[in-house]
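Batch job 17 of 40 flagged for manual review because the log was empty.
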Amino acid sequence: MRSRFAAFARAEVAYLWKTLHPDHPLRASPEREVIASLRRAAETNRYQSLAILDAQGPDAEGIARVLFRAGVFSKGRDLGFTECSEFAHDGVGWRYLRGVMGQRSDAKDIPTFLAERTAAGA
């Protein structure tokens, strides 16, 4: 998780592609298109802070979860968010499978964050 955030901050887009799980929806798109999109995001935004709030797993299905708050800015606008990311091992390493994003949240643990998202209809 921390390495992916650092890769966004450093615009290391090849690493971001490499750490996407084979089942991640972006893997269905051409690599060069995804990398170009990741590069635009990495170059447009400033990734300033990362706070890990909670971590779980892996569970019985092999999924590990990380709840974090990211401080991201673009042209002075606060684009910060909270996300519960899911990672799965692909036999080589842990890869980003999917995430549930939300606006800034006061949740300090994964169950509370997911309950907030469910209550909000997300």
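Reviewer: the log was empty due to a logging misconfiguration, but the result itself is present. The mean pLDDT is 89. Unflagging and moving on to job 18.
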